[in-house]
Amino acid sequence: MSDTIDLGGLDRIRSTPLWTLKEVTVIYVLGGPGSGKGTQCKKLASRYGFKHVSAGDLLREEQNRPGSEFGSLIANCILQGTIVPLVVTIKLLENAMKEAMDKDGTTMFLIDGFPRQLDQAHAFEASVVPSTFILFFDCPEDVMEERLLTRGKTSGRSDDNPETIRKRFRTFVETSMPVVHEFEKKGKVITISAARGPDEVYEDVQAVFKEKGLDPIETSRVHDSPPN
Asked: Which CATH number is associated with domain 25-210?
């Protein structure tokens, strides 16, 4: 399948971002597969009023959407542990952000699992909005693999198997770590040790958010699930 994809002109990246830093806050959330970044995003979204946008979830939803012209391309990339063409991912993210803004008035986003490579980072910042910083969850591969294999017993995900997991690790190191390194040089990376339990990791993230001037929303505004 060709990587030349028509997505309403997004393959021709805008010369200026759609939104400014003053209008929209974006925090990239990166970490290897199984680092627990999705769990932390859900906690942060509830407590701090961010919209949690998972790049992986958006791609899986698009893959399963009836009539999607990109479904087979996405499925193959996920199975092989490779990266979906950036124009597809950026368009899905932009659409999700617009939808959240229109529906809830949200202007604060945690983008989970993105950018996965430097060209994604450069394209998103040039055409959508510059990021505030990267929240990087650092975790040893043996810990991540154990978590993913445990999840794979019940997740039903095609990529939760030993062969694909190791491919995903290699892809992350080769393509996503350069993103982390580039943003580190700009002073825009916060690294969290993610080998411990989720509550301990969350305490560290809260401390960092406090240092950055990001305060929890008032309890009355936190929309938790109603009691059973």
From this structure: 3.40.50.300
Instruction: Place 220 in a pLDDT band, splitting at 50, 70 and 90.
Output: very low
Residue 38 is labelled as binding a ligand: yes
| pLDDT of residue 188 exceeding 90 | yes
Is 39 within any annotated ligand binding site? yes
User: Which residues are within 8 A (CB) of 127 and not within 5 positions of it... i.e. 6 or more apart?
Assistant: 10, 13, 14, 17, 18, 90
151 is in an annotated binding site: yes
User: According to the annotation, is 168 in a ligand binding site?
Assistant: yes
**Do the annotations mark residue 150 as ligand-binding?**
no
Prediction pTM value: 0.84
Residue 84 in marked binding region: yes
Q: Is the pLDDT of residue 10 over 60?
A: no
Contact 10, 119 (CB under 8 A): no
Residue 63 counted as an annotated binding residue = no
Domain ranges (residues) in the chain: 25-210
